[in-house]
Each structure stands twice: as structure tokens, then as C-alpha cells.
Amino acid sequence: MPLLESPFAQLDLIRQPEQQNEPLQAFDAADEYLLNHLADQQPGTDTRVLVLNDSFGALAASLVGKVQVSSSGDSFLAAQALEKNLVRNGLPFDAVSVLPASAPLAGPFDRVLIRVPKTLALLEEQLIRLQDQLAPGAQVVAAAMVKHLPRAAGDLLERYIGPAQASLAVKKARLLIATPDARQPAQSPYPTRYTLDEPAIELLNHANVFCREGLDIGTRAFLPHLPKNLGSARVADLGCGNGVLAIASALQNPQAHYTLVDESFMAVQSAAENWQAALGERDVIVRAGDGLAGQEPQSLDVVLCNPPFHQQQVVGDFLAWRMFQQAREALVVGGALYIVGNRHLGYHSKLARLFRGVEQVAATPKFVILKARK
């Protein structure tokens, strides 16, 4: 893999989660463009720089020792990648102050470097939170590959920060450079809420939650077929999002024990708040993590999962396959993984390579609900 070379550092970087013969590198031309732009401004070691949505730590790791750098984003895997890449390049694993997107920022900041996220609601929420965190003379610079840069990103910068100017494209990357001006802080439209009829619950959704405005059709297909009569089973909702699968299951299974895990900090925050609203003080574990990577082997009886088929802009079944492997490892012998998936993804044959028995629980024209027994 090539090294990331910038005026600040030369780094050997890896993506998370790691896979053999990784075809993709852990940085792109938009990262290089941001670093070169910052270097042109000749920041001092006392310059406070905030990095937002640094996919694998390329930006923050490059700036260690050159400026005062903080990093915030909504991905547990991104935070893990930053820590691993610091160590990989001989830097202290805690050299960067890292904040989940669900936590308040600790400004003021002189420079803000933003990788434009796939979900523009996350960008909007981040810009609103930035408004009272900028030092006099600050600059906010957002970057993306041109093919992933919607016009709305510039509109959001102008609405919440100040006049924004688009740079020339370099190696198919572009910068949006915003100059903050004085304005009244905006009220955030997040979290959003929607209600379900069955079960009769209201669900709160922070800015970066998948299907924030309403229940996604895969989950809608899955809900009527969640396993019943679980007794005191240990159940995990893997990739829990706002927690709807676990909450619906828990309402049907009052003695079961639940663990909810997602790699999005905002999803975990939403799930924890939704659990408390629906189930009060009933015991639960809700955590941000790399799926079930930290789960004890053979410590679960049931895993519920609506797997994603993309990581940021990259589409594929790598993450789903990994979740299936994690579920198999975490389940007891005889335990079961229940999933919903698009018919065309062919999860039945993938699960059959890992599990003793795979059966179709239900199907719609678009989705299948499968049960895989270890």
C-alpha cells in the first residue's frame, strides 16, 4: 500500500476492519488536499485544529506534534483505526484527543478540517454544534472527492458557518472553504422522532442514524417474525441502529437479557434513550463497538441482525459476512442468528457456509428473513 505523504508527515496507514489483500487504501486525494491547504497557512504548534469524520485517522495522525489536534466522528471503527495507525507509525496511541460525535465539542478551534460524510444530516448537526466553538479568525474547510460532494454540503456551510468558496479540483478532490461570520446560533432539528403502531412505541433518532425519518422497509419486514418464547435467553441486536429490533423483542420476551451494539456512536445514543423510554430501568448493555468482536465466545443464545451492505461510500457484503462470522463465534452451540436481507444478496448460501442449518422464516417480494442455527 502507498504511504500518505504530506508536508506534515509520511504515514503507513491501514483501514478498519482489516481484511486480507485489502484492495482499498486508508486515505484519498481529499485527505491530501486538506493537509496541503492547512500546511500553506503555516499553523503553529499552538494552533487548535479539529478534524471531523476522519475515516481511518489519516488527517489527525498526520498532524500529531505539529498542531494541537482533536478528532470527532460517528464511527467506532474510525476511532479504532486512528489509534492503530498512531501506534503503527510510532506515535502514542493517545496522542489525539478523540470525541464521539454524540459528545459536546471542547473548543475554541482555530481550524476545522471536515471530511464530508455520506449522511448530510450528520454534517448539519456538526456545523450547528461548531457555531459557538470557533476562535476569532477561524476557518472551516470541508473536503470530498468530487463524485461524493453534493451541492447541499456547500449550502450547509453557508447556512451555519459563513460564506463558502469552492476550490479548484485537484486529483478529483475539492475543498469548500468557509469563513465564519457573526450570526445567531441555530437550533438543531435533531434528534427526529417517529412512532410505530406495532409495537406502540416512539423512536428517537440522532442525526446519523440509518433511516432517521421512518422505519426502513427491511426492519418492517423483520419485526413480525422476531423469535418468541425466548425465556431468559441472552440476545444481541448486532448493528442495532436506533434499537428497534431489540426493543420490540424485549417487549415480547420480558425475561430475556439484551446487548445492543453498533459502530455509530449516535446510533448507540439513540438506542439507549429509546430503550429507557420503552422499557424504563430494565437491565441492558448498549455499547459502541466493532460488532461482536469484543463479545465472549459462546455467550449468546440469539443474535438479531439487519446487516449493512456499505461502509461509507464503499458498497459490498464484506461487513455483513464479518458480522455473520462474529455471530457464529459468539453464539452457543444450538444458538441462532436471525437476519433480514435483500433477496438478491444471496445471504442463504453465505450463511450455509458458516452454520449447521439455515431456514427461511418468511419472505416478501424484496426481502427474506433467515434463521441460521449453530
TrEMBL record:
Pfam families xref list: MTS, RLMG_N
GO terms, molecular function: 23S rRNA (guanine(1835)-N(2))-methyltransferase activity; nucleic acid binding
Enzyme Commission number(s): 2.1.1.174
Methyltransferase small domain location: 201-371
Organism domain of life: Bacteria
CDD domains with a match to the protein in the record: AdoMet_MTases (cd02440)
SUPFAM superfamilies membership: S-adenosyl-L-methionine-dependent methyltransferases
Primary localisation category: cytoplasm
This protein's record includes keyword S-adenosyl-L-methionine: yes
Location within or outside the cell: Cytoplasm
Key words, A-Z: Cytoplasm, Methyltransferase, rRNA processing, S-adenosyl-L-methionine, Transferase
Function: Specifically methylates the guanine in position 1835 (m2G1835) of 23S rRNA.
Official protein name in the record: Ribosomal RNA large subunit methyltransferase G
Lineage: Bacteria, Pseudomonadati, Pseudomonadota, Gammaproteobacteria, Pseudomonadales
Encoding gene (name): rlmG
